[in-house]
Amino acid sequence: MNTVVIGAQWGDEGKGKIVDYLASSADVIVRYSGGANAGHTIVTGGKQYALHLVPSGILYPDKTVYLGMGMVIDPAALFTELAMLKENGIDWEGRVFISDRAHLVFPRYREIDKKRDSERKHPIGTTGRGIGTAYSMKSERDGIRIADLFWKEKTAELDEADRAFIAPYIERLEKMKVDITAEMYRLKGKKILLEGAQGALLDLDAGTYPYVSSGMSCASGAPVGAGMGPRDIDRVLGVFKAYSTRVGNGPMPTEFNTETQSELYHYVRETGREYGVTTGRPRRCGYLDLVALRYACRTNSISDLVLTHLDIYDELDGIEACVAYDIDGKIVTDFPADIGALNKAKPVLEQFKGWKTSLKNCRSYADLPEQARSYVEFIEDYCGTPVNIISVGYERSDTFMRLDPFTRGAEHGNGL
């Protein structure tokens, strides 16, 4: 049973927490795309972990994790992260493996990234981690994979700085490298949890191009990055927040107006702790964009939605969500590819009553107040996709499911 977890918005939806929550039921966890530009925050036992490359499941002592062939890996960042885990009592050795087809990120890629973005007429807002350059080198067939480190003729082509950078890591990487396709075939029939990076709306093809990431953050990238075939995927979980956020430049039709809605903007950002794990940058915040969410469901065959940060609205008298765009006086309900149109889009909002009570102790769908359930059910009806996992806090325990994602068939967990 192979289950994929993707972000259904512009990233930062809480995928890391959900992967951590589900990892207890999985046999192995695979990160299939992205690089150190991603950031997952896990809070468990009162301790917080910030992960960028290592799959969230590593926090369970009996789980094995894989970094897939769709990833681009900065060895310095990887081993710094692994050292952090060891310092915090997480024994990772013998449990972290890397696809020998994954590409490497070299230090000089960072400066190339920053220079390219600064020279664009419309900067994308890159994290400057060299990720875009690594994927660009990969597509131009000039990249270096883990496997290439053991191909003498190839390493001889590297410049002196690149060779000096990679030399201290070669022996350690050799111990961790695997043929991930062979591994996944060996594990056939096991419960495999596949973890994406960024979000569906940042996918290179389906996202708000050119304001996107360089890798495949869509569900289709999961079998590619994990060395599987498309028929090997059983369920796709799309994680989204009760509101929308975005980091960097690009269209965001439901963004709060900083002049007229500064109090709401500040409340959501501070209550939701909306600051980038990787960069520390404050995130842009806005109403839940159901037009974009439904588009993500359709383009990724999302079988189950996962709602996070629902508790952020606990203190509000009422909340709103976007159900359509007003673009030059025309009502639009399908997500446009035209960036100019998205930049002009004004949200058409649906109003909902607030619940004015803490959701912190809710441990089942039935525990939610009626107003919160009404909000959830409206989302389900609009997107045509069930919300089967809900998070009401930062701790691992502040999460409950209506349907086990490692099952096939039924759409809802009987309202539990």
CATH superfamily of the largest domain: Adenylosuccinate Synthetase, subunit A, domain 1
| CATH first level of the largest domain | Alpha Beta
Measured as a percent range, the helix fraction is 25-40%
Number of separate strands: 20
The number of distinct helices, counting runs of at least 4 residues, comes to 13
CATH architecture designation of the largest domain: 3-Layer(aba) Sandwich
Radius of gyration: 21 Å
- Strand residue content: 15-25%
* Main β-sheet, spatial strand arrangement: 9-7-5-2-10-1-11-15-19-20
Instruction: Please summarize the sheet with the most strands.
Output: 10 strands, mixed
- Overall 3D form: globular
Q: Which regions contain 5 or more consecutive residues with pLDDT less than 50?
A: none
| CATH fold description of the largest domain | Adenylosuccinate Synthetase, Chain A, domain 1
Structural class: alpha/beta
Quaternary structure annotation: single chain
